[in-house]
């Protein structure tokens, strides 16, 4: 897929292609391989204890959900920061300065992920008009250029940040956005889509 590493057209995943997964990531030939390090978040679990001497409950136990429960907002916010940290770690390994977290771009990224979930699409452009969605919003903040990476996966939230950044790094157009020396700011938005997590990574630069 032809894509400019600095501006439009931005890289995107074609819905006809297989859903990206951690196991499908090919190794990146250049620059040097990167392994994201992430301390797994230990999420609370409920143990079911059987006691043969206890009376049989009058009501059957509630059915277990078939899909993973949505994690608390604090956990999602932490995962968003981990994506930023892993992105900056990879930039540092390649001699680039870190991207500053911009709360206005964070809002744009979260809105982009929420919009894709709400309207059931996965693209950089509006499914009705074909217009780019993030770029005019980022430029309206006073930046001179913008970029966007998007990703979704059914991985648990504890593993999702490392999985998404590793996939971006393994794909040349997405890696080009992360290693673009013209970008100085970043925002990340992660939203539950009912089956997994949708992530938007927006960049801004002068």
Q: DSSP strand (E) fraction?
A: 5-15%
How far apart are the first and last residues' alpha carbons, in Å? 26 Å
Radius of gyration: 19 Å
- Biggest sheet: strand arrangement: 1-3-4-2
- Output the structural class: alpha+beta
**Approximate helicity band:** 25-40%
Number of H/I helices: 5
- How many strands? 4
The dominant shape is: globular
Mean pLDDT: 77
Query: What low-confidence regions span 5 or more consecutive residues with pLDDT below 50?
Result: 1-33, 37-68
| Major sheet details | 4 strands, mixed
Order of helices and strands: HEHHEHHEE
Describe this structure in words.
The protein is an alpha+beta fold. 30% of the residues lie in helices and 14% in strands. The chain contains five helices and four strands. The protein has helices at residues 73-93, 103-119, 134-139, 160-170, 172-178, and strands spanning 100-101, 145-153, 185-192, 197-205. β3 (185-192) and β4 form a beta hairpin. α1 (73-93) packs parallel to α4 (160-170) and α4 crosses α5. The two termini are 26 Å apart. Residues 1-33 and 37-68 have low confidence and may be disordered.
